[in-house]
Design goal:
Blueprint (H helix, E strand, L loop, with lengths): L6 E5 L7 H5 L3 E4 L4 H9 L6 E5 L6 H5 L3 H10 L2 E6 L9 H18 L3 E4 L4 H10 L5 E4 L5 H9 L3 E4 L8 H4 L6 E3 L12 H16 L3 H19 L7 H8 L13
Parallel strand pairs: 1-2, 2-3, 3-4, 4-5, 5-6, 6-7, 7-8
The structure holds zinc ion.
The site of zinc ion (ZN) has 5 residues, from loops.
């Protein structure tokens, strides 16, 4: 798969990684957990295939308590993506009303600026869908989605994309309820993990999806790039992306049928 790099729609990086280390990560939509982290990214140098998000994670107590809507809006003007934001009713110690305040602000800013939003919904799939009805945004990406079939169909009707993690890739809803043109792939790679491990993790999810969808592996990679292109066009964020990433998203090169693959 030399001609089209792996595309990870949701991962995290330790802010101290060097640009060289990030260069080995393939193409990544990189999420941040707090406004402080996002502010560092908004100032930092641009890796050619990495797009940064401004986020406030629903499990991060300090980030949620310190959340400043004006600062968030200013960062969202400079960054192409909003994420990671969302709701979590199982593992978060942040009171739900505080989570809701932050999430609603994030959706309002996404609607105003036309930014895609990468959304955490652990144990809160119903709540997240209710909020998306309340505040429609141009493009939402449901990250590590665990909703049931009914909720999934509802999310599809709302226009959501799904960034599929290996832990959920075998769920049949991604074959029976989600159209292929809404599928993306993610690693949710952690801060401490080496960025060079991402392409392999993405290939593993692509493989699981290729089995589910009954398509060759390379078609899954082409599909997720086309889907990124569609959401870039829908939101008009291309000018905010690194040029190489924008170009690959808008006109992804085809992968030769005989390209080698790990799986
Ligand atoms: Zn994440």
């Amino acid at each position: 798969m030399d001609h089209l790099p792996s595309l990870d729609a949701h991962a995290h990086f330790d802010p101290h990684r060097t640009p060289d280390e990030l260069r080995d990560a393939g193409a990544v939509l990189a999420m941040t957990l707090s406004l402080d982290e996002a502010a560092g990214r908004a100032r930092g140098e641009r890796a050619p295939l990495i797009a940064w998000g401004v986020g406030c994670h629903p499990r991060k107590v300090e980030a949620q308590v310190k959340f400043d809507p004006n600062r968030f809006g200013a960062l969202a003007e400079r960054l192409p993506i909003i994420g990671e934001v969302g709701l979590d009713t199982r593992w978060s110690r942040v009171p739900l009303d505080v989570q809701l305040r932050t999430f609603r602000t994030a959706l309002q800013v996404a609607a105003k600026l036309s930014r895609p939003v990468s959304i955490h919904s652990y144990s809160a799939t119903r709540l997240v869908l209710d909020e998306l009805r309340r505040t429609p945004v141009p493009v939402t990406i449901l990250h590590w989605w665990t909703g049931n079939a009914t909720e999934t169909r509802e999310a599809v009707a709302l226009g959501c994309y799904f960034s599929v993690h290996s832990a959920v890739a075998r769920r049949s809803i991604f074959r029976t309820a989600v159209p292929p043109e809404r599928i993306l792939v993610e690693s949710d790679h952690g801060w401490a993990d080496p960025p060079a491990a991402i392409p392999c993790r993405v290939e593993w999810v692509e493989h699981l999806l290729s089995v589910q969808l009954g398509r060759p592996h390379r078609e899954v990679r082409e599909l997720v790039w086309r889907n990124l292109g569609a959401l870039v066009r829908e939101t008009g964020i291309a000018p905010l992306l690194p040029p190489r990433l924008a170009e690959s998203a808008i006109t992804p090169p085809a992968i030769p049928p005989d390209a080698p693959s790990l799986f």
